[in-house]
Each structure stands twice: as structure tokens, then as C-alpha cells.
Amino acid sequence: MQATAEQRGKGRIRLANEADILHAAERVFARAGYAGATMADIAACAGIPKSNLHYYFGTKRDIYRAVLTHILALWLAPADSIREDNDPRTALAGYIDAKMALTASHPDASRVFACEVLHGAAEIGDILRTDLRLLVERKAAVIERWIAEGRMAPVDPRHLFFTIWAATQTYADFETQVCAVLDLPALESADISRAAAHVKTLLLRGCGLA
Amino acid sequence: MQATAEQRGKGRIRLANEADILHAAERVFARAGYAGATMADIAACAGIPKSNLHYYFGTKRDIYRAVLTHILALWLAPADSIREDNDPRTALAGYIDAKMALTASHPDASRVFACEVLHGAAEIGDILRTDLRLLVERKAAVIERWIAEGRMAPVDPRHLFFTIWAATQTYADFETQVCAVLDLPALESADISRAAAHVKTLLLRGCGLA
DNA sequence: GTCTATATCAGGATAGAC
DNA sequence: GTCTATCCTGATATAGAC
User: What sequence ranges are listed for the domain HTH tetR-type (chains A, B) (predicted)?
Assistant: First the structure.
């Protein structure tokens, strides 16, 4: 007797099709960017007739925004491990692990996000300036207290976030470059594990948490 | 009596126009990506009639490749400071400074490169697998010797490059995000200096070079 | 409520003028 | 050798059929 989405006015077919379309769109946008992606590509990838995309979502931009909304929810979650009552080493290691796991499990989401920000974040700039900024401010305050208490080396906490994001997401966003240098056809989970270990070793030691 | 480009068959007008087009193209590709950039945008930005782009370069793709070629030359140069006869701290600090300076002086170049790699490096994949890979192998060997001699902490040298590239280029590629978090309208040179100091502090300490 | 045929438009490329 | 008018493909979006 739960209030299912269907009861709120969305049919089973619509729900399934919307999910398929969003999933396909993430793949296509990740590979070609917003402008490079075509409705035909997305439709083919989703196994749905081209013009149905407009029926379900209206415009290409609407699909793109829906994909980004989904990604942002994923992206803001992992910072939970950075809490005052955790010790700095556990907290930061947990955060890096969570970001690496996300990067490994959702590389296309990472790429869509990266491409959006790279081109000026026209769609999500507001969210970056509000939700993301607020999140970082709160977590930076925690890190600043740890530093004041002498529990880790003095590091600019906001820039620390930039470095952690960059160092982890590079394995999704620039996978091509990583594979070229390492002479690998693609990154396997063992490679990601090695990368995570490297990032933790380097950055934790950098924070005086070795 | 020097062998000028003009004497090799390129007129003054052509040289000036080609330079203007490449400069404009870098801006436009950085903002919109390959697919999102239009010949009309590039022409407007260069102050040249649209169809002249085809006269000077043939196709849009030819312009893109010319831009990428120029960027790659810039990108591979800074690794020179990593030499056996330098001490590790100076060498790595110099490399990070050089990468940050490049990022600050050529943010659009960084973005075009990032976007190309993000989407699979169809145009420059070969160069990444040859020139870049070779460069990293040579420099990684130097770093491995420093580690073997106990002159720095054990760090995977290839992954160290990934982290340095990511940590520095994020200030160009994801400037929008950095500005959103720091509540700045744009990154000034003072902000870049702070960022460079942060990256050096964090990564050098991470390499046991504090 | 779901799917298809069609209109409209923008953008890259070419043929030809100066 | 340099520049301009024009073509034509291909992509989004809509109107209408089932």
C-alpha cells in the first residue's frame, strides 16, 4: 500500500523508459559532451525511438539537466566521513576511498560532471556556489580545528579538497591518458586499488598523517 | 636575408591570419569543446569572415589538430627540471611551479587538452602512447633512482605524475568550481600563487621532501 | 498514453567572384 | 592569392497518428 511513483501519476512504462534514457544519456554525454551528443545517439543507446526522447523529457537540455541532477546527488554524499568525532587519518582516508570508489563505479558520471565544469558550469554553477560551497565550508572548519589541535599538519583545507578531487577523479576523467602512460588497454579494479593506495599514501603523508 | 616563412611560401597576410585563427580557435574550443565550437564563433572571435577559415585551414578538424599540436609542444616541455643531477626537492618543486605557471598563463590550452583527453583523445591518443609515455618512463626512472638512494619516500613515480598533473591543471580546468568554493569571481595571480604553494607543500611533504 | 512522420534551422563545406 | 555567396547535410523539435 506504499505510495509508489506509479500512483503519483507515472506509469510503469514511463518510469522504465525514463531510467533507460537517463542511463543512456550519461554514457553518450560522457563520450561526446553536451554539444557532441545527439538525440539519435541517446535513443539508439537506450533502445528507444528518437522522437520519444522529446515525449519523455521535452528537450535535449532537459535530459542533460536530469543527468546532472542525478550526478550531483552522488557527488556530494561521500564527505560524510569528515566529522569532528572521527580521527583525521580515518576520516581523510575514508573520504579518499569513497571518492575513488565513486570514480571507479561511475566513471561516466565523473566525465559528464567534469565536462560541465570545464565549460563553465552554466547549468550547475548555482549549485556549486551554494550547496557545494556550504559543504566545503563546513568540512573545512572541521579540518581547521584538527590543525589547530595539532592533530595534522597545517594545510589549506579548501585547497586540500581541490587536490583530493583532482587526484581521484583523474582516474575517470583522464583514464585515456593514464592508460596511455601505463600501457594498459583499460583500468581494471586492481589498477584502481593501486591508484587509491598511492593517493592515500601521498596525500595523508602530505597532511602529516603518515 | 634570413629564410623567413614568407620566403618558404607563406605570405604575411596568411601568417597573420593563421595565427589569429589558431588563437581564436583555442578560446572557442576551450569554452565549448570540439563539437560545441562553430566555425562562425571562431571566425567572429578572430575577426575574419567565416568561409576564410576553410581557405586557410581546410576543415574544422584541421584547425582543431593545429591547436592541439601547439598545445602538446607546450605541455611536454616543463619536465626538463626532473634530471638526475638536480636534487629531488628542487626538481619536483620546479616541475610543479612550471606546471602551475603554464596552467595560469594558458588556461584555455589546458582546457582544450583536458576536453580532448576526457573524450578519449581520438586525435592525440597516438602521441600520448608514444611521446608522453616515453617522457614519463624516462623521468620515472630518475625518480626511482632517487627513491632507491633513500633521497625521497617511496612513491609510485607514474602515479606521482598523474597527481601532479591533476592537482595543478585543476586550477585551469575546474576554475569555475574553485571560484565557486572560494567565493571568487575569477582566479587572480595571487590566488594561483597560493595554490602553487599549497600543492608544493602537500606533495613535497607527501614525497618525504618536507 | 505512446509512438512516428515531418518541419525547420543551423552549421560545415564548396564553387566561384574579385 | 584572398574573400564571398551558396549549397546541403544532419540535428532538434513539433504536429499529428495510433
Answer: 15-75
